[in-house]
Specification:
- Strand 2 and strand 3 form a beta hairpin.
- The protein has 318 residues and is mainly alpha-helical.
- The protein folds into 2 domains: 126 residues, no CATH class; 177 residues, Neutral Protease, domain 2 (Orthogonal Bundle), CATH 1.10.390.
- The N terminus and C terminus are likely disordered.
- Strands 1-3-2 form a 3-stranded mixed beta sheet, with helices on one face.
- It is built from 10 helices and 5 strands.
- Helices cover 42% and strands 8% of the residues.
- Bound molecules: zinc ion.
- Zinc ion binds next to helix 4.
């Protein structure tokens, strides 16, 4: 039996009143266990509530890793709300996330890892999307589509970091991490969809593919999701930065984005991404990322390129 059941499995989302009542019942029932024994609203910063009591240790290790990478946690309190539905997916909020999972998620190592990746992905959004966010999403208007060309960064880099930080936290093996990453890489590189649009163009198609209103039929031959597309750009950029004479990493770029756009909560436009990359490397170069039409398998594998000032189009392989 899971130790945490925020909502019972159900098909409709509960009302605010029903949620409060469910929390009260859970607290009274004693059927759940919380970090430090605190009731849910008083969870300490960085708490993570997972399926089983033993997993609180896993959750703490992951949150600690996030704190190590960023140097801080961006919230006072954060809640992982896990809905035991028989569907999947999650939604990020500024100080919480709602996760959906099957009650059988912990049955196998593979499904458990998938769930951990989901929790980590949504948690990364507390920085990337909730605070470092694309300008086109504002002003928030939930009655309309807010297309942005930057989902390859907002979702894709989050997709890259979710499993990576679990690995860094020692909660997955190198083989597990690489198996998952190579699957993502193969899907992007061998799929034909990338030939039909740049990562920015794929991002702009979100209203048609990410259940904004309804899932439109999507032809995988002409669409590559900005999730894996962006994740592979993240991988490529990370490797490229690590391969420099004075090694940097994608962490440095993300922390730069935090400084210029996350901390001041100043939404970014595509040109700001280029500027942050140039500031990260310190090169007097125009840096271009996310705009190329495809992920090539030949030169310049991943839509990341550096162009000298003056238009010398010099690509770097990695
Ligand atoms: Zn996401």
């Amino acid at each position: 039996m899971p130790h945490i059941q925020i909502f019972p499995a159900q098909t409709a989302y509960p009302s605010r009143e029903a949620f409060a009542e469910a929390l009260g019942q859970l607290r009274a029932s004693g059927e759940y266990r919380l970090v430090g024994g605190n009731p849910i609203p008083e969870l300490p910063a960085g708490s993570i509530v997972l399926f089983r009591y033993a997993d609180e240790v896993v959750g703490e290790a992951i949150v600690r890793e996030y704190r190590r990478m960023w140097g801080f946690l961006p919230y006072e309190k954060y809640l992982f709300l896990n809905l035991l539905t028989e569907s999947g997916g999650g939604l990020e909020h500024k100080n919480s996330t709602v996760l959906m999972a099957s009650r059988w998620t912990t049955r196998t190592r593979r499904t458990y890892n998938n769930w951990l990746n989901l929790a980590s992905h949504e948690f990364f959004h507390a920085w990337n999307v909730e605070r470092i966010r694309p300008a086109e999403l504002e002003p928030f208007d939930f009655t309309k589509a807010n297309p942005t060309p930057s989902l390859w960064l907002a979702e894709g880099f989050t997709q890259y970091y979710g499993p990576l930080l679990i690995r860094r936290a020692g909660q997955s093996t190198t083989d597990e991490f690489l198996t998952s990453l190579s699957g993502t890489l193969n899907g992007v590189v061998t799929g034909p969809g990338r030939l039909y649009g740049s990562p920015q163009e794929m991002s702009l198609r979100a209203p048609f593919v990410d259940a904004a209103a309804a899932l439109a039929p999507t032809n995988p031959n002409i669409f590559t999701s900005y999730y894996p597309y962006g994740a592979i750009i993240g991988l490529a950029l990370d490797l490229q930065l690590r391969g420099r004479e004075k090694p940097l990493s994608l962490d440095d770029f993300m922390k730069r984005m935090w400084k210029t756009h996350g901390a001041p909560e100043k939404p970014y436009k595509p040109a700001d991404i280029q500027a942050a990359l140039a500031q990260t490397t310190g090169d007097a170069k125009r840096q271009s990322v996310g705009q190329r039409r495809s992920v090539d398998t030949g030169e310049g594998h991943t839509g990341v390129r550096e162009a000298e000032n003056g238009g010398d189009d010099k690509r770097h392989d990695f």
